[in-house]
């Protein structure tokens, strides 16, 4: 077929003659293996692997990769075995083909589970050899290029998976051309009407733009010549998906987005990049806050360029990228620009080391994620490029996703640092662990040897790595205490339905465990703690012989002993302490959260109380709890010292303090450590003796 000859001709420009012979042999072998098979378009099936190999040949990939591309479907779709491929074409090719082969045809409970398992296998194979994902991406790209033959519903499903997973993987690996084409095709088939409207609008506007782009190109070229810079300057149109996303995210009209032009300047070396930047800033005024130096601080995928947005003629914003030829090669082809895996000294290059570290991080995530939806959630978060650059105390740069917190940073350093972190200093100042990080922040994590992850962290961490490690800890280290509390929660729910927990038979338990998709009763109890199962719902699914249980028993509360550890949280909005009437709220991913009964942050609408649990404090609780108080005092010298002294006399400790001054008054908010409500009352009585204090009350955070 002509396409195969094109492949052999194109690859002969950089491969050895013996490599071309191997490709021809692989093509002949593939033709025989796929004989009688056709694509939905009616073409012989072999046309697909040839097209995949041609896509990869444009990246100048090596002969084993192209050979595996020609054979990537023979194990899945024919009777050819991995051993036969290994015998004919070598172990390296066989491993690549096996890595790319899709998951064996087994029955999954949901489409999401099948998708998650497919990506698990792909990532594990990627961690062994990144060429696997290059073939997989080329495979997806050709499938997207020929998606018209599918039914519209199938087109949308494949296109959205492409936008959510495959395009970000291509971007993360720096494969710019593949990334942009996957995005354009994904947009076209996900939103066909919107795509067609934008196509017509860009065609209509193209004539008007051509003259403006030409004038800007000429002005930039002349300005760079003044500095004796030999530069290649090109103007480019924004891609449709980029236009669409700007319209959606910034609520702009089409004409507003279209006024932003893109120009690329390629120079010989790094000093020339900065000279060119200075010349262009003297030609057009830079827009404040729109400059990024990715040369000094490269992106995760090793992308380097200077980015600046300038105010061009007629007040038009124009985007400028300045880079060297080597940077441009990496920007276009990413990890594939170094397809030779080791240099002459046998060392991995920096880009491959970064890629390997990222893949290993994903593998760690998938190994500790047992739930398919949880794994896909982690994968989608970690695939998108990091937007925040922060520094360790030693000056090392870490790149994290936008919205990352100090806890995310701690886990990015090491899982042990994350598990044991208790405090953080940001730019030398103490800050809450939930603080969202900004580019340029210098982060110092404070750890304690006996500290443990807090379930509340799940409410604000942004990275899959942090979320995965926290969940893994909750599921394993605190397993026993979670099982006990989960059992108490279920027993209370059963009693509320007039069902004696002891009357549940082994057959009923077996059926419930099987229907719930868990492995044991103990796992079901821990899922209730993590908020994945509601005790009331589980109780309803259990049917037991009705027994006579007194009505007063139906209101028997779950006893809180204060020793449950991470199985429960005490809400910071109201700081419940022994002696307070309390209620438990089951919160997804955070588990059981205890509030004061009258807390303003819980719903008292009966319709919303299915996940409320009746709780009571146990007797002889021997530990301290956080309690909040608010004090307004005369702003006099030494008042804080006197307040602190009275708190100490009352045998209480200060955990946190916030102060504000207002004219003659000082407002102080304390988090104190007390044993119970009676102890807190003693502290407040002691403070009322101070003449400077005008008001004192209990409060939340």
Q: How would you describe the overall organization of this protein?
A:
By secondary structure, the protein is of the alpha+beta class. It has five domains: 2-188, Hypothetical protein af1432; 193-336, Beta Polymerase, domain 2; 386-466, Ubiquitin-like (UB roll), CATH 3.10.20; 478-617, no CATH class; 625-699, Alpha-Beta Plaits (2-Layer Sandwich). Helices cover 49% and strands 17% of the residues. The chain has a five-stranded mixed beta sheet. It has a five-stranded mixed beta sheet with strand order 11-15-13-14-12. Strand 8 and strand 9 (429-431) form a beta hairpin. Helix 22 (479-496) packs across helix 24 (521-529). The chain is globular, with a radius of gyration of 31 Å. The termini are far apart. The model is unreliable at 103-110, 339-348 and 544-554 (pLDDT under 50). InterPro entries: ACT-like_dom_sf, ACT_dom, Beta-grasp_dom_sf, HD/PDEase_dom, HD_domain, NT_sf, RelA/Spo_fam, RelA_SpoT. This is Guanosine-3',5'-bis(Diphosphate) 3'-pyrophosphohydrolase. GO terms for molecular function: GTP diphosphokinase activity; guanosine-3',5'-bis(diphosphate) 3'-diphosphatase activity.
């Amino acid at each position: 077929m002509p396409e195969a000859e094109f492949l052999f001709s194109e690859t002969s420009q950089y491969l050895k003659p013996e490599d071309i012979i191997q490709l021809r042999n692989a093509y002949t072998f593939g033709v025989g293996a796929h004989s009688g098979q056709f694509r939905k378009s009616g073409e012989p099936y072999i046309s697909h692997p040839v097209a995949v190999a041609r896509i990869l040949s444009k990246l100048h990939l090596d002969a084993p990769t192209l050979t595996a591309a020609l054979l990537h479907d023979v194990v899945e779709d024919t009777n050819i075995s991995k051993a036969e491929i290994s015998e004919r074409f070598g172990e390296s090719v066989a491993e690549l083909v096996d890595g790319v082969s899709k998951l064996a045809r087994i029955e999954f409970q949901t489409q999401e589970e099948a998708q998650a398992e497919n990506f698990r296998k792909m990532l594990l194979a990627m961690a062994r050899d990144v060429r696997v994902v290059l073939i997989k991406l080329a495979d997806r790209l050709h499938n997207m290029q020929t998606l018209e033959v599918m039914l519209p519903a199938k087109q949308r499903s494949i296109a959205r998976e492409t936008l959510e997973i495959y395009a970000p993987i291509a971007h993360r690996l720096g494969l710019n051309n593949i990334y942009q084409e996957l995005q354009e095709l994904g947009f076209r088939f996900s939103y066909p009407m919107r795509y067609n409207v934008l196509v017509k609008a860009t065609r209509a506007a193209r004539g008007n733009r051509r003259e403006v782009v030409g004038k800007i190109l000429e002005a930039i070229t002349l300005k760079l010549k003044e500095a004796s810079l030999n530069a290649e300057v090109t103007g480019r149109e924004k891609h449709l998906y980029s236009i669409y996303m700007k319209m959606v995210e910034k609520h702009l009209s089409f004409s507003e987005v279209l006024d932003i032009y893109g120009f690329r300047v390629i120079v010989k070396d790094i000093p020339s990049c900065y000279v060119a930047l200075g010349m262009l800033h003297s030609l057009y005024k830079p827009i404040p806050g729109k400059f990024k130096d990715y040369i000094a601080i490269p992106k995760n995928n090793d992308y380097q360029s200077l980015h600046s947005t300038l105010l061009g003629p007629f007040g038009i914003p124009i985007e400028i990228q300045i880079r060297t030829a080597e940077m441009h090669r990496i920007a276009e082809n990413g990890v594939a620009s170094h397809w030779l895996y080791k240099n002459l000294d046998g060392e991995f290059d920096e880009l491959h080391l970064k890629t390997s570290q990222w893949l290993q991080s994903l593998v760690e995530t998938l190994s500790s994620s047992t739930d398919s939806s949880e794994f896909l959630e982690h994968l989608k978060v970690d695939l998108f490029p990091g937007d925040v650059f922060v520094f360790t105390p030693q000056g090392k740069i870490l790149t994290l996703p936008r919205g990352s917190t100090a806890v995310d940073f701690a886990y990015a350093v090491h899982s042990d640092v994350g598990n044991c972190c208790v405090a953080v200093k940001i730019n030398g100042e103490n800050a809450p662990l939930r603080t969202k990080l900004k580019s340029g922040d210098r982060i110092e994590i404070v750890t304690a040897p006996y500290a443990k992850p807090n379930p509340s962290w799940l409410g604000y961490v942004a990275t899959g790595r942090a979320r995965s490690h926290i969940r893994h800890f909750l599921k394993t280290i605190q397993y026993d205490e979670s099982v006990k509390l989960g059992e108490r929660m279920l027993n209370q729910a059963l009693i509320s339905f007039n069902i004696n927990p002891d009357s549940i038979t082994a057959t009923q338990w077996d059926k419930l465990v099987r229907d719930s998709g868990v492995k044991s009763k103990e796992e079901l109890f821990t899922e209730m703690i993590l908020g994945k199962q509601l005790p009331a719902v589980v109780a309803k699914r259990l049917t037991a012989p009705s027994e006579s249980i007194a009505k007063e028993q139906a209101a028997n509360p779950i006893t809180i002993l204060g020793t449950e550890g991470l199985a429960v949280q005490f809400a910071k909005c109201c700081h419940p302490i022994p002696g307070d009437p309390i209620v438990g709220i089951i919160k997804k991913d955070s588990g059981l959260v205890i509030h004061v009964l009258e807390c303003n942050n819980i719903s008292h609408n009966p319709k919303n109380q299915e996940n409320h649990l009746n709780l009571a404090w146990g007797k002889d609780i021997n530990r301290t709890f956080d309690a909040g108080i608010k004090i307004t005092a005369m702003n006099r010298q030494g008042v804080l010292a006197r307040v602190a002294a009275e708190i100490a006399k009352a045998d209480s400790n200060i955990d946190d303090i916030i102060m504000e001054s207002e004219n003659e008054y000082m407002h102080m908010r304390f988090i104190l450590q007390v044993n119970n409500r009676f102890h807190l009352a003693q502290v407040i009585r002691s403070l009322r003796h101070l003449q400077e204090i005008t008001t004192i009350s209990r409060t939340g955070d």
